[in-house]
Amino acid sequence: MLMLINCSNCHAPLQLPPGANSIRCVLCQAITLVADPRSVPPPSASSSHHHYQQSPPHQVLTPSPYNHAPPGQPPQAHGRKRAVICGVSYKNTKYELKGCINDANCMKFLLVNRFKFPESSIITLTEEETDPYRRPTKRNIRMALYWLVQGCQPGDSLVFHYSGHGSQQKNLTGDEVDGYDETLCPSDFESQGMIVDDEINTTIVRPLPHGVKLHAIIDACHSGTVLDLPFLCRMDRQGKYVWEDHRPRSGTWKGTNGGEVVSFSGCDDDQTSADTSALSRIASTGAMTYAFIQAIERGYGTTYGNMLNAMRSTIRNAAEHEGGFVTTLLTMLLTGGSLAGGSRQEPQLTANEPFDVYKKPFSM
């Protein structure tokens, strides 16, 4: 049972794992010392439902690998908005990408100005950050993902955006349809390893309670099922679609604890995702991130089906249109850059359960 204390600096609620004698707040970075965790009284019966969610009996949730569990903001009356934005450029390495930090900046701008996410409830991890806890290392990305879902309640809207390298590795447990696990590559992946889709699913998908909505926007190679969600929307170029069942044959549970998860990814599991300036004609961006923002700016953010069709059309037609066009948000934010060629990829949509993509309204 996790115990509840308040941050000694900003007073955000912190969930203290058993045995921990200190906890760092991911919001203000203050360290709160606890003399004896056993002396912290458990929450009263009347308030416990505000901070704890019961998991179905068949779920075994992986505990945080840290000596602390960073939480979110104090509750608000009509649901909170919280986001983790991660842009990994691999600067000064042979893996360097030009557009990922631009992607992170654009996504934050979109969330704050279009969807009214409070800046104070957005964690941005990029190599430009001077704070060592805000750099996109494996440890920090893991910490941020735990923070994203900690203490979430009905009405909350969560977003995870990642722009960087993705990869695959052989699956040894038999729970992948294609035989491979999809992975994200943090800035220190060569020394610390990659983050595997099984861990991402366990961390931010399986614990999600009823009434909470999570959107993932993953701009990376091999990212089609990187959240390990059970259903993939297989759509053709005419907009016709079927939901493919990707539930593991092993019976391993990959759904939520009652919440809703929808993921837009840059390409299918066997495709690569472009880092290009051909779309915005101003600065390097991930093709999928640009297409996602442009779809919203051009008014296609009505349903999930319209969003997916618009994103695919933008990428498919990028090489055919000279000059391209820059959305209001990107124009306001980006400067500099160079021209480049077109890109070939098909953004994908996955979810924890099937739905009518042309009737379900898109909202974050």
Describe this entry's structure for a reader.
With 364 residues, the protein is an alpha/beta fold. Helix content is 19%, strand content 21%. It has 7 helices and 17 strands. The chain has helices at residues 100-113, 138-149, 189-192, 197-205, 287-297, 304-316, 328-333, and strands spanning 3-6, 13-16, 22-24, 31-33, 81-87, 122-126, 157-163, 166-170, 180-184, 195-196, 213-219, 231-235, 241-245, 260-265, 275-276, 285-286, 348-351. Strands 6-5-7-11-14-17-12-13 form an 8-stranded mixed sheet, sandwiched between helices. It has a 3-stranded antiparallel sheet with strand order 8-9-10. The chain has a two-stranded antiparallel sheet with strand order 1-2. β5, α1 and β6 form a beta-alpha-beta unit. The chain is globular and about 60 Å long.
